[in-house]
Amino acid sequence: MILAAGHGKRMKSSLPKVLHPLAGLPLLAHILLRVRDAAPHSPVAIVVGHGREQVESEVRSDSRFSKMDLCFVVQSEQRGTGHAARCVMDSDWGKKRLLLKQSVLVLPGDLPLITRGLLDQLLMPLHRGESMRVLTTILDHPTGYGRIVRRGKVGPVLRIVEEKDANTREKAIREVAVSIYHFDSAFLNFGLQRLSNKNAQGEFYLTDLVSQASRAKKKMDVLVWGDPQELRGINDPYELAQVARILNDRILKQWLLEGVTVMDLVTTWIEPTVRISSGVVIHPGAILTGNTEVAEGAILGPSVVLKDVEVGAGAYLKVGTVAENAKIGAHCQVGPYAHLRPGTVLGIDVKIGNFVELKETRVGNKSSIAHLSYLGDAEVGSRANIGCGFVTCNFDGRVIDGRRKHRTIIEDDVFMGSDCQTVAPVRVGKGAYVASGSTITDDVPADSLAIARSKQVNKIGYALRLRSQQEG
Ligand code: UD1
Ligand code: CA
Question: pTM of this prediction?
Answer without folding.
Answer: 0.92
